[in-house]
Design brief:
Layout lengths: L1 H8 L22 E3 L6 E9 L3 E8 L6 E6 L2 E2 L6 E2 L5 E7 L2 E2 L22 E10 L2 E8 L5 E7 L5 E8 L11
Parallel strand pairs: 2-8
Antiparallel strand pairs: 1-4, 2-3, 3-12, 4-7, 5-6, 7-10, 9-10, 11-12
Length: 178
């Protein structure tokens, strides 16, 4: 009789909630960056999709030492302060301490859409906000205020890349659906 009670006891115990964040992601949503001007120019803006996050990459033709990424209420145009419309439930301001060559084919002007985000899980918009006095701003519209990470990778060659990854989900430790 005791054996039967013990055998059935595990049915009465609630399953423990997982303490693991979504995809092992432990990023937050606080600003990141390094305040400094860089010597290069922005050469490309591109994006990619991954299983757990969407990725934005800014290519620079020299080492990037000055950059910042942060959530903002509005993305504003460099120099003028005019609001640049960026679709999404939340907006990241991606700032690179480099200029841009006005003859670049991808440079269209403030408010131009740089990436087709229609098939992305998290990204909703990637918008050119301008370049002024050696600082270039991209508005990144995302589905909601989600965890992100930002970092610089060296290469290719003497260039560098500012990488911004935004998670598809936010899942607090101990959340049952993680």
């Amino acid at each position: 009789m005791v054996l039967v009670l013990l055998a059935g006891l595990h049915l009465l115990v609630a399953p423990t909630a997982s303490a693991h964040p979504y995809c092992g992601i432990t990023w937050g949503s606080q600003p990141r960056g390094a305040v400094e001007l860089s010597a290069g120019t922005l050469t490309d803006v591109r994006a990619g999709r991954h299983d757990c996050y969407d990725r934005l990459v800014l290519d620079v033709d020299a080492p990037l030492t000055g950059w910042s990424v942060r959530y903002v209420d509005q993305v504003v145009q460099d120099g003028s302060g005019f609001v640049v419309p960026v679709a999404g439930g939340a907006r990241l301001e991606v700032l690179a301490g480099v200029g841009v060559l006005p003859t670049d084919a991808w440079f269209i002007g403030s408010g131009a859409r740089l990436v087709d985000t229609s098939s992305y899980t998290t990204f909703r918009d990637v918008v050119w906000a301008g370049s002024f006095e050696g600082m270039t701003t991209i508005g990144l519209g995302v589905r909601a205020r989600l965890p992100f990470r930002a970092f610089v990778l060296a290469g290719p060659g003497s260039g560098s890349r500012l990488v911004v990854d935004v998670a598809h989900r936010w899942c607090a430790p101990g959340h049952a659906t993680c």
